[in-house]
Design goal:
Layout: H1 3-11, H2 18-28, H3 32-48, H4 56-66, H5 70-79, H6 84-96, H7 100-112, H8 117-130, H9 134-142, H10 151-163, H11 167-180, H12 185-197, H13 201-212, H14 219-231, H15 235-248, H16 253-267, H17 272-285, H18 296-304, H19 310-313, H20 318-322, H21 329-341, H22 348-364, H23 369-372, H24 383-391, H25 397-401, H26 405-409, H27 416-428
Helix pairs in contact: 1-2, 4-5, 5-6, 6-7, 7-8, 8-9, 8-10, 9-10, 10-11, 11-12, 12-13, 12-14, 13-14, 14-15, 15-16
Length: 436
Amino acid sequence: MDFTGKVQTLLQQEPFDETALQHVRHAAFASDKAMQDFDSLVNQRMQNSDAKQPGEALRIGLSLCVLSRFEEALPYLEKAQDGREKFLYLGRVQRILRNYTAAKHAFDKAGKAGLAPAAVSVEQARTQIAAGEFDAADKILQGVAPADRSADWHVAQAKVLEARGQRRDAIRTYEQALDLDHTHPEAIFRLGYLADLEGDDEQAIDYYESLVGTGPVHVHALLNLAVIYEDRDQYDKAEDCIDKVLAIWPAHERARLFLKDILASRDMVIDEDVERFREKRSALFDVAITDFELSVRARNCLQSMGINTLGDLLRINEEQLLAYKNFGETSLDEIKQLLTSKGLRLGQSLEEERKARQLEILKQVQGDPAILVKPVAELQLSVRARKALQRLNIQTIGELAARTESELLGVKNFGQTSLNEIRQRLGEYGLTLRKA
């Protein structure tokens, strides 16, 4: 039987429950081609099938979940026949889409449709975790009887411990999850990630490789593994990890950026010509402004602003110059012409530093790259919190997520209230502050 026929058969299993979906998932992720074929098959069913037919909307909705096409999955799951799987995955999709109230209602319905009470509690707790409400999540989890505490329960509890900075306790709890289910992908990933944070590369590699060696493609594990390989100058292995991600999700922005970084690192050749160019450029940046012909007004303004070299000019933009007293368009044009003659421009160093910082943040912070590069203003923080971030020159959500609690608390007039506000706002985007 060919792949399409095999998956069609799997999709027609009765009942189409969690076990049936696992069979579909493993078949779809068996290879790059299998994933592409499965994607095409799902598209065909969306076009040709009658979603009103009993069970068909559920099959399409769950298949879209396998493909991580959650926004498309939502209307199919809402139309599906009522049942445990419908409400369970409807809640998970709503949680991923940050519709936390809708997610909670869906999980309540899943419980009424037959999902075990302990499983409902775990899903509700994970929803609170996603929303940044860790104390509420802990309260729900503690309400589960010890005899009913599954591997999923331990993973949720460990995530609460992580959020509180109790890393050692979190590691032990993840290990308890593996005692109950030695293949639990999230427990394996988090243990690899925590080992990575502690600098234990060997253990991190063991966890990550065990995760990516079998089963569905795990994007975060592959990306983190690629970072370790690149740090060890094992560029072929790092590139192979990224290729596996891009084979399934060719538009994955973080993977594409990282692949460029890997290729640049591998192809980097430091020779005498390159060194001479760098030395020449550095020397040019150190040339004093007084060595150039500028009007007295422009020269005096720059001197008053503490701008003494060409390099200093590259670290300031037009708006900052024009904001200075007695500095006008004529002086600005003078300076721009000077820089253009040297192949330079105002704010050039600022732009280069920001790009480098964004690349570093994409490596350090787990999250959707499209969210990480958004301006921090989208979080709609209070005035006090915004001023604190301005003092730290934090301009994007990713830059904020890359900061630690202690860094924020070290800013004047920034207290626990502002910290809680930021944690909650980041939690709405599925992010947290970096652990120290």
